[in-house]
Amino acid sequence: MNDETLPEVIMPSCPNRQLLKGQKALVTGANSGIGREVAVYLAKEGADVVVNYVAGKRAANQAVAEIKATGQRGLAIQADVSNEAQVKAMFRQMCDALGTIDILVNNAGLQQDAPFDEMTLAQWNKVLGVNLTGQFLCAREAVREFKRRGVVPEVSCAAGKIISMSSVHEVIPWAGHVNYAASKGGVMLMTKSLAQEVAPYRIRVNSICPGAIRTPINTDAWETPEAYAELMKLIPYNRIGEPEDIARATAWMASDDADYVQGVSFFVDGGMTLYPGFAEGG
Ligand code: NAD
Question: How much is the pTM?
Fold first, then answer.
């Protein structure tokens, strides 16, 4: 690649600007939990947003309605992120409708827990298929479009941004959830390796690593006072995370304010990764 073709970096300077004005974003698994909050938040920051869902059309349409209420364009597209043909069709539909993509938030994910010796191959494959292969398939389509289009300086310093929704379990081992932890460990090195590969094209790739966030994926961990008290033993900051905590971090990571941030795992976890067991003694 010829460095001389890269435009000068134009850093935004208006303090009241919307972080993502004029950008087009795709959020996978955006009809629930973190993805839904991220999708609406990106719209509040000025992006047009595609809400991907695999099931739950009604919730997806509600998210789109909230996006439209911000004044931005919103569109729900059904696709299973682990299905190559459906992912390709989703990107085609998005580019036809909105022209291009500037931000991919690879958020869709699930758990299928089991003791290791009882885990079925179907449970292993399902979790790896959605959490890791799904992120690969969507990131690949996004990179193709980012490379095709290149940097548009009026829109962003970068040719494109990918945010991988990882987890504290990309570094914290998790008994009983080996498939999930393995998928997030894979997301970590996919994110960093891809970031290294595409940085010369001014494509930024980073991950957000949530701690315990109040969503349907982990209801058991917070819905009773007893469960919540147990959970707090793991969180030095002494509160559960809310989807908006992740949405704010994601919007920043996707914005030009984070233009020199590349290949990082950004933990948003109230200190869960600070070995809270060592707070006293050790
Ligand atoms: P959630 O269950 O509310 O949302 C997950 C979304 O992914 C849903 O919309 C679901 O329909 C979608 N999805 C599942 N399979 C799909 C597929 N094949 N194709 C497209 N979409 C699919 O859970 P959440 O907590 O909002 O999780 C979002 C992401 O955050 C996941 O990647 C999860 O691993 C990660 N995460 C969550 C927490 C937490 O505490 N909630 C912590 C760390 C990481």
Answer: 0.95
